[in-house]
Amino acid sequence: MDQTPFAADPGPAPAALTPMMAQFFEIKAVNPGYLLFYRMGDFYELFFEDAEIASAALGIVLTKRGKHLGEDISMCGVPIHAANDYLNKLIKLGHRVAICEQMEDPAEAKKRGSKSVVRRDVVRLVTPGTLTEDDHLDARSSNYLAALAMVRHGETDFALAWADISTGESFVADLSAEQLADEMARIAPAELILADATRAVLAERHLFAPAWAAIAASIPPQSADSEAVLPLLRAAFPAERFDPTALSRAGRAALGALVGYVGESQKGRQAALRPPVLDAAAQAMTIDAATRSSLEILLTQRGQAKGSLRAAIDMSVTAPGARLLAARLAAPLRQSRPINERLDAVGRLVDDGLLRARLRQDLKAAPDLARALSRLSLERGGPRDLAAIGKAIKAALALSRHLASQPEPGLVLEGLTARLGAAPQALASELGLALDEELPLLSRDGGFVRPGYDGTLDEERALGRETRAVVAALQARLMDETDVRSLKIKHNGVLGFFVEVPAAHGQKLLEEPHRQSFIHRQTLANAMRFTTTELAELEGRIAKAQGAALEIELAIFARLRAAALAETQALQGLADALAELDVTAALAEVSALRGYCRPRVDDSLAFAILGGRHPVVELMVKAEGQSFVANDADLSGNEESGGGALWLVTGPNMGGKSTFLRQNALIAILAQMGCYVPADSAHIGVVDRLFSRVGASDDIAHGRSTFMVEMVETAAILNRATRRSLVVLDEIGRGTATFDGLSIAWASVEALHETTGCRALFATHFHELTSLAKTLARVSNVTMKVREWEGEVVFLHEVGPGAADRSYGIQVARLAGLPDPVIARARQVLDVLEQRSAGTASSRQKASVLDDLPLFAHQSPPAPKGKDPVYEALDTLRPDEMTPRQAIETLYQLKKIRDDARRS
Ligand SMILES: Nc1ncnc2c1ncn2[C@@H]1O[C@H](COP(=O)(O)OP(=O)(O)OP(=O)(O)O)[C@@H](O)[C@H]1O
Fold first, then answer.
1. Which sites bind ATP (predicted)?
2. Fewer CB within 10 Å, N or C, the chain?
3. Residue bearing the bigger pLDDT, 788 or 564
4. What average pLDDT score do residues 515-537 get?
């Protein structure tokens, strides 16, 4: 191992660079923006600013080594065996790392001269979007790299290409400026690459979302040139399966940039990317970023999985199933036919619990085929990945056989049966024969080929075993010859095989006649060690046998790997089929367990839900031992009447308005992704775009006030919603002065009703809005019912016709623990305000109550009126003098005094 790339004092001029330092700078210069993991023996070392960044991020010691231009050089290092963990941490923090390895043995370098440097090169760029190892990835989530390109004069403005190189899936879509934000929200890539010029145009047009800055990486403009990338695309995908010229120029540029970046990051290793799926966005319900966040589809608004819709319904049993389920949830369909086909398949498994249980059981045996295949194609896979492929094929064939014996499978299940049945059985058989039960992670560790699979390998292994017997025989012979009974033949890493005798017998072997054959190697405190020529020969034989065995195993591995990769296309198809079956069975499971119903999905403008429930809140309410109150919603309309209905939902705070609004949006998502829905019945005409807004949430970090955010979002809805859309607006207009807010809410309802004609739910505390039901034909008022009981408000969480006349805000504030004096004062103010709006308060009354605001003056809690008999009785008690019996009697008396006082 060479020591340091830097001389202790390199002197003032760059001419004083040591050869190694020159090498370091050279490599660093061609990998700008990456932390350079520079391999030195058993460590990756980082220097200069890289060292400072990494030591702070990883919490490891920053040291100094040598000087450069008179300054100390900062340095830190991570040991090779722990490098993966450190790498993982850096990537999670958004850093990008270039792995620079020693490309030759230091001894080789020495042969070129004592001053020559070990050749080094970057073998891999590790970035958040190009991960493939299991310990860097979340098994149940996709990890996308996205490339965004723009062609100013082309058919379209922008295109996005994205791929998960851990599975090989890839996609391209031409997008309008507004679709761009929606798609980015849906895909949620780990990394976004784009040229600086594209980024500048996006920023200028306010299209570069602030959240993208954290994941963006810049690429040179020629990497996203629609002409220059063509050869790259032709090389990446087989011509018979994909023609890159069929893409738009922007699409080509984006996909080319993506393929180029993946190639560069893997340094020539070929990622098994599948031909891209085109324009997935066109098939899916449009759900923008704000709606995704407000409905907490994959993550809650705090960014957690727990509490999201996904967490509530994901019952998949395999990781690929979980990834597909998330993808489907993020992109519900918008064509009734495929939706119904999916629902048929789910329904078949809802109805047949036995079949469902059996399939789910068999699916558990299917490993993550796509990720194993991807690792193998990137030369990062090991024997376990090969075994995973074999197991997945076997599981697929078993599933197919089982499904084939079922009557009336329906279109989707029938298709799956055929696809699973087409699994390459011969490959599985070969893998089964070749691979042993217990497998090492890496092929270079050897020992993974099953005995009996390869005759020559077995022979070499036998030779290895045989030599062990030879060692034992030799030991016995030497014991006899020397007459040292305690003589032993041992082995260690430094000496190899050696003879060890206790110190007391050592001298004997140093003398004639033994000194002829025993060569002294080491003297320890109580033992002496020797070698013999015979032992050295034996050593050579064993090493050769082991080396030969490993070589054979590696050749077998290479052959099996090639055989698996030759089936790439079939295996990728199989991985899809397994994931689809898992999702279908998982959705059936959740539907059956939770009493969901099959929705009727067609092309009408219906939206009629009977007994609807919120899939997530229902679980939480039940976990607390309470029952969830189901509610109906009917927003159905038709073209003749001008579109769908709009329900104005009023009711107290905490009454369940938001829950009701969101449950209907979530029911639409579940239905259109092909799942049963939490309701007694549901009839839904496909929704093309779904909008959900919850009023007032600050976006201070991005310089937009509460009200501004709300208005930008409302504008997006009014501009983008169509007659087919479903709009859910929760308290729009509350972030400004009452009258401004009311006027905006009013005008928005009118616009949704008159111009858009979409199906909509609009929750509001502006009770004035409810009068719109008189003038707008398709607007109805509903309210969350409450009951008042002994001055307290009880929420029934029940939706009924009519409008609320009050919000019970003060009662809710009391429940929340606002101090009593504040509550009392609020009641006073409310009374006057209500009388004023009803025109019944005199101006003197207003002045006396409102102008004399004692709210912030110090108020002590009201003293109890009169004397309290309980306190008086307590004053007379002497607990020290009481027996336990007297104490309990006194307690009863106290309680009686209090009850009497209440009654009087
Ligand atoms: N249908 C229901 N059945 C049972 N509990 C419910 C139901 N709907 C809501 N809840 C409970 O009431 C709580 C408050 O509901 P929600 O947030 O929907 O009220 P809200 O009317 O929107 O309140 P605010 O106006 O203050 O935003 C929920 O967290 C849930 O625990």
1. 651-658
2. C
3. 564
4. 88
- 659 CA → ligand 1 middle, Å: 5
User: Going by CATH, does the domain composed of 148-283 fall within 3.30.420.110?
Assistant: yes
Which residues are bridge partners to 683 per DSSP? 600, 608
- What CATH number has the domain spanning 14-126? 3.40.1170.10
Please say whether the beta carbons of 222 and 228 come within 8 A.
yes
Residue 695 pLDDT > 60: no
Q: Enter the pTM of the model.
A: 0.82
Which residue has the CA at smallest separation from atom 9 of ligand 1? 656
Å from CA of 658 to ligand 1 middle: 6
Q: Please check the confidence at residue 390 and state whether its pLDDT lies above 90.
A: yes
Please name the residues in contact with 901: beta carbons below 8 A apart, sequence gap of 6 or more. Answer: 868, 869, 870
Binding residues: 651-658
> Best mutation site among 654, 731, 761 for ligand 1, i.e. most ligand atoms within 8 A of its Cβ?
654
Ligand 1: centre distance to CA 805 (Å): 18
CA distance 123 to 98: 8
Coil, strand or helix at 498: strand
| Atom 18 of ligand 1: nearest residue by CA position | 656
Strand order, beta sheet including 527-531: 488-492, 496-502, 527-531, 519-523
| 405-427 mean pLDDT | 92
Which CATH number is associated with domain 309-424+567-594?
Answer: 1.10.1420.10
pLDDT (0 to 100) of residue 699: 44
Task: Give residue 884's pLDDT.
Answer: 82
**HSE toward the beta carbon, residue 621, CA cutoff 13 A:** 14
Domain 455-555 is of which CATH architecture? Answer: Orthogonal Bundle (1.10)
> Tokens for 739?
């009258």
Q: Whose CA is nearest to atom 1 of ligand 1?
A: 629
Pocket of ligand 1 (CB under 6 A): 617, 621, 628-629, 651, 653-659, 797
Q: How far apart are CA 636 and CA 785, in angstroms?
A: 23
Mean pLDDT of 513-537: 88
Which of 398-402, 535-539, 736-740 ranks highest by mean pLDDT?
A: 398-402
The rounded distance, in Å, linking the Cα atoms of 360 and 320 is 14
Q: Which of 621, 650, 666, 732 to mutate to test the pocket of ligand 1 (most atoms within 8 A of CB)?
A: 621
Class assignment of domain 600-805? alpha beta
Looking from the CA of residue 620, the nearest atom of ligand 1 is 31
Distances in Å between the Cα of 882 and the Cα atoms of 715, 879, 885 are: 74, 5, 8
Ligand 1 centroid–CA 763 distance in Å is: 12
Taking CA atoms only, the protein residue closest to ligand 1 atom 8 is 656
Number of H helices and E strands in the chain, helices first, is: 32, 27
Query: What are the backbone angles phi and psi of residue 538, rounded to the nearest 5°?
Result: -60, -45
- Confidence check: pLDDT of 855 > 60: no
- Reported as a pLDDT band with limits 50, 70 and 90, residue 363 is very high
Annotated binding site for ATP: 651-658
Q: Tell how far the Cα of 480 is from the centroid of ligand 1, in angstroms.
A: 90
Nearest Cα residue to 384 out of 372, 396, 366: 372
Distance from the alpha carbon of residue 652 to the mean position of ligand 1, in angstroms: 10
Rounded CA-CA distance 392/571 in Å is 9
Q: List residues bridging with 158 in a β-sheet.
A: 150, 175
